[in-house]
Amino acid sequence: MPPRRIHLGVCGIGYGHAARSLIILRELERRGFTVTVSSYGDGLRYLISAGVNALPSPPVSYGVLPEGKVSIKMTIYRNIMLPVRFLEQLSYELGYVEDADLVLSDSRVSTTLAGKILGKTTFTILNQFNIRIEYPRYRRLIEVLEAACYAPGEIWGLSDEILVADYSPPYTISKRNLVIPNRFLGKTSFIGPIIERPEEDVRRDDVCEIYGLDPRGGPIIFYHASGPSYERRILTRQILPILDEIAGEYQVIATLGGDEPEYAAKHLKVYRWIDDPMKIFAISDLVICRAGQTTLAKALASGKPVIMIPIPAHGEQLGNALSVAESGAGIILEQDKLSRETLESAIKRILSNESFRESAEEYRRLHTKLNPIEQICSRVA
């Protein structure tokens, strides 16, 4: 008899893991499985806001400076008790996993370990295996920390199978964060990004009417705010006035990830939240965003080139941005260099060069051939 009770542990840093886990959860429930879910931080809030009876776990996070830059010193300070916090989180997960027949971990070390301790079949879903630290000033310290950061990978390697929620090489968005040891490659599969499937029959006129855009007007630019709460707000606070200034030449629509706008926009369309952002991706000519893997995957699966503004000193986002830029589907703009001049220059460069759209189209065509949710469900059935 196939397992009917599944526990899903979700990384709670930012919205990306929770967003894709929600897609998995809904499909598993549709197929008759009973699923318990645990998370923390932004992920927990996202799941609860979506109506999920998510269970809390002790939070972990990294340190951030006031300007939104990842701080090594603050990360060490905030996680000085990390071993104790991890054991506390593991204790919670052991309780949640106990009655499950099968365990799914979305980048949660404690969930993977709890599943294996209790002898459960355990799958780990991830798009980051090794943690990259971008901080040249403390190179010796970084070498020590990066070595320590391989510990989560050793625990993920205990999984019955590792499911990489990303495109296969050479299109892998997170390839710089996926240095997987050879001994684990035999249990590793690339299943594709877990995102809402782009609609193929989106009517541009209908979507434009809903959001007050002119389907025959200037290029449509979509600013999609995402990532951890503080870092998301820092960029939104900085970029909205700039977008408002250029909204005369372009049609600009912004969604703020649930945040209240702190700037009274005169020209651009601003929404706290859009229920179906994939339709906005579909009608946009380019997307401006952070460099989280889920957001990039949504834009590229829609065939849209991107202007990426990674969280400063955030190794994962910088790695993602470099991979997409090297593929020709986007441009990296550093947060501390963001201005009207630099943003307009990047916009004009993308809109005037067809190669950016063509490179993004490669991702769209690849995505139509993938079905990551079916791959997950076929393993748990």
Keywords:
six-stranded parallel β-sheet, 15 strands, Rossmann fold, 15% strand, 16 helices, seven-stranded parallel β-sheet, alpha/beta, 381 residues
What is the subunit organization of this protein? single chain
Q: Termini, distance in Å? A: 9 Å
CATH architecture classification of the largest domain: 3-Layer(aba) Sandwich
Low-confidence stretches: 69-77
- Counted by DSSP, the helix tally is 16
Number of strands: 15
CATH superfamily of the largest domain: Glycogen Phosphorylase B
What is the CATH C-level name of the largest domain?
A: Alpha Beta
Residues in helix, % = 40-55%
Q: Into how many domains do the coordinates divide?
A: 2
Mean pLDDT: 89
Task: Please sum up the structure shown.
With 381 residues, this protein is an alpha/beta fold. It has helices spanning 16-30, 41-49, 72-78, 82-97, 109-117, 139-148, 151-156, 182-185, 204-210, 229-246, 277-283, 293-301, 315-327, 340-351, 354-367, 372-380, and strands at residues 5-10, 34-39, 55-56, 63-64, 70-71, 102-106, 121-126, 161-164, 188-190, 220-224, 251-255, 269-271, 286-289, 306-308, 330-332.
What this model shows, in words?
- The chain folds into 2 domains: 5-196 and 370-380, Rossmann fold (3-Layer(aba) Sandwich); 204-367, Glycogen Phosphorylase B (Rossmann fold, 3-Layer(aba) Sandwich).
- The chain has 381 residues and is an alpha/beta fold.
- Helix 12 (293-301) links the parallel strand 13 (286-289) and strand 14.
- The protein has helices at residues 16-30, 41-49, 72-78, 82-97, 109-117, 139-148, 151-156, 182-185, 204-210, 229-246, 277-283, 293-301, 315-327, 340-351, 354-367, 372-380; strands spanning 5-10, 34-39, 55-56, 63-64, 70-71, 102-106, 121-126, 161-164, 188-190, 220-224, 251-255, 269-271, 286-289, 306-308, 330-332.
- The chain starts with a strand and ends with a helix.
- The longest helix has 18 residues, at 229-246.
